[in-house]
Amino acid sequence: MCLAIPARVTTIDEDNMAQVEVLGVVRQASLDLTPQAQVGDYVLVHAGFAIEVVDTAQAQETIELVKQLDQAAFAEFGA
Known about the structure:
Structural class: alpha+beta
CATH topology: SH3 type barrels
Protein backbone atom coordinates (compact mmCIF):
# COMPACT_ATOMS: atom_id res chain seq x y z
CA MET A 1 0.00 0.00 0.00
CA CYS A 2 1.21 3.49 -0.82
CA LEU A 3 0.41 6.65 1.10
CA ALA A 4 0.72 9.69 -1.15
CA ILE A 5 1.24 13.05 0.50
CA PRO A 6 0.88 16.18 -1.63
CA ALA A 7 4.14 17.97 -2.40
CA ARG A 8 4.41 21.58 -3.63
CA VAL A 9 6.29 22.20 -6.88
CA THR A 10 9.01 24.78 -6.18
CA THR A 11 10.99 24.74 -9.44
CA ILE A 12 10.78 23.15 -12.88
CA ASP A 13 13.82 22.71 -15.12
CA GLU A 14 14.13 22.29 -18.88
CA ASP A 15 14.02 18.47 -18.65
CA ASN A 16 10.54 18.58 -17.06
CA MET A 17 12.05 17.66 -13.70
CA ALA A 18 10.65 19.48 -10.68
CA GLN A 19 11.90 20.16 -7.22
CA VAL A 20 9.03 19.42 -4.82
CA GLU A 21 8.73 20.08 -1.09
CA VAL A 22 6.57 18.54 1.61
CA LEU A 23 6.95 19.24 5.33
CA GLY A 24 10.43 20.66 4.76
CA VAL A 25 11.68 17.69 2.74
CA VAL A 26 12.83 18.49 -0.80
CA ARG A 27 12.91 15.88 -3.58
CA GLN A 28 13.16 15.67 -7.36
CA ALA A 29 10.17 14.42 -9.35
CA SER A 30 9.47 13.99 -13.04
CA LEU A 31 6.51 15.92 -14.44
CA ASP A 32 6.28 13.70 -17.54
CA LEU A 33 2.92 12.30 -16.36
CA THR A 34 1.59 15.70 -15.27
CA PRO A 35 2.82 18.21 -17.87
CA GLN A 36 0.14 20.69 -16.74
CA ALA A 37 1.81 21.12 -13.32
CA GLN A 38 3.18 24.58 -12.61
CA VAL A 39 5.35 26.10 -9.88
CA GLY A 40 3.16 26.45 -6.78
CA ASP A 41 0.91 23.50 -7.64
CA TYR A 42 0.58 20.49 -5.37
CA VAL A 43 1.25 17.06 -6.87
CA LEU A 44 1.10 13.49 -5.65
CA VAL A 45 4.51 11.84 -6.14
CA HIS A 46 5.07 8.09 -6.52
CA ALA A 47 8.35 6.41 -7.51
CA GLY A 48 9.86 9.71 -8.59
CA PHE A 49 6.94 10.77 -10.81
CA ALA A 50 4.25 13.34 -10.13
CA ILE A 51 1.14 11.28 -10.89
CA GLU A 52 -1.60 13.83 -10.24
CA VAL A 53 -2.06 17.56 -9.68
CA VAL A 54 -4.27 18.11 -6.63
CA ASP A 55 -6.37 21.01 -5.42
CA THR A 56 -4.51 23.37 -3.05
CA ALA A 57 -7.18 23.24 -0.33
CA GLN A 58 -7.28 19.43 -0.43
CA ALA A 59 -3.47 19.29 -0.34
CA GLN A 60 -3.24 21.59 2.67
CA GLU A 61 -5.95 19.63 4.49
CA THR A 62 -4.06 16.37 3.88
CA ILE A 63 -0.76 17.89 5.07
CA GLU A 64 -2.47 19.16 8.23
CA LEU A 65 -3.83 15.65 8.92
CA VAL A 66 -0.34 14.18 8.49
CA LYS A 67 1.01 16.71 10.99
CA GLN A 68 -1.70 15.73 13.48
CA LEU A 69 -0.91 12.03 12.98
CA ASP A 70 2.76 12.74 13.66
CA GLN A 71 1.92 14.64 16.84
CA ALA A 72 -0.38 11.84 18.03
CA ALA A 73 2.28 9.20 17.36
CA PHE A 74 4.87 11.24 19.26
CA ALA A 75 2.50 11.66 22.20
CA GLU A 76 1.81 7.91 22.23
CA PHE A 77 5.27 6.50 21.57
CA GLY A 78 7.76 9.34 22.14
CA ALA A 79 10.76 10.11 19.97
